[in-house]
Design goal:
By secondary structure, the protein is of the alpha+beta class. It is built from ten helices and 16 strands.
Amino acid sequence: MTDAAQWLGTQLPAMEAALQALVELNSFTGNREGGQRVVRLLEDVFAMPGLEGERIGSDRFADHLVFRSQGKGAAIALVGHLDTVFPPGTFEGYRVEGKLRRGPGVLDMKGGLVVIAWALKAIASTVGLSAIAPITLVIVSDEEVGSPEGAPLLRHVIAGAQLALVFESGRANDAIVTQRKGTGSARAVATGKPAHAGNAYWDGANAIWALSRFVDRVQALSSRESGVTVNVGTISGGTSKNTVPAEAKAELDLRFPTKALSDQLWTSLQQAADTLGVEGATVKVEQTGGRIPMEKLPGTDALLQRYGACAKAHGLSSDEAPPQGGGSDGNTAAAMGIPTIDALGPRGKGFHTPDEYIEVDTLISRAQALADFLLS
């Protein structure tokens, strides 16, 4: 066992104290004030010899954080986020239940941030951070809404990194994520022509009818075989039952396993909008956000094997997870051509639900695996 891993063996009380403090501060993405309190706490948590921190200001979200160390060779990128999906008052507090710890963000992903911090502290306290490859750690505050600021920051800060490790929620079986679907958001706006439904029916063009035709076409683009899914999640329109509706809107969620399928899907959406067959009505499709898929790259399997060996040495599984439907900031790193693995946070279940928990002992084993990997 390395000196760093041995040092970590006594650190569970300190790690849990830091985790509890982070979890008890609400950092819902839209709660900027709460997020800023977490930012300040993280600056304290990551204060250690050899690691320099920088805040990247945001007017919309809490500030983002970048930490760097000096070393030899290309940098290793460590990626995390501080925001959660729980608005104030919906799911609060930190609870101890035997070996389980429950609370908002305990798994997704404040537990992962504690793993990173203590792995780096272990190295700083033994051989020093300058003894390993340079570290670039990025903690964004807007991951849960698609990283509209975080993704451009990542593309700027981790460019040239040799690999990326992402500390999203650890799976119940410790499986390591190597592939994630890309995600897309779209809005379809149908425009027709208003008219009185009784006296001037034939003068109108029904936007709801046009949008309904569009919805039927795009839902049919979902395919079990390709892994592409289209979900029309909300729809609205019209003013009254006796008025031919002039406008209708729908919000779409899109998932796709490869960039090629993403391009094909966007083309198909536009074709569906162009072939409605409702005279006088049109549908315009607007892209409102998304992530490029996290695909396997040359080097991903080797990275999985190397990190997996360190995980296995500390009692964790080194299995590869099946492709995941949800995106993360790992998508951004992989899209840059950086071999990336994900879900390296502590073991747990229930992220995005009030049942969220971690197995507390895996804070240590995950930190030991990371420390040994960085030292290797």
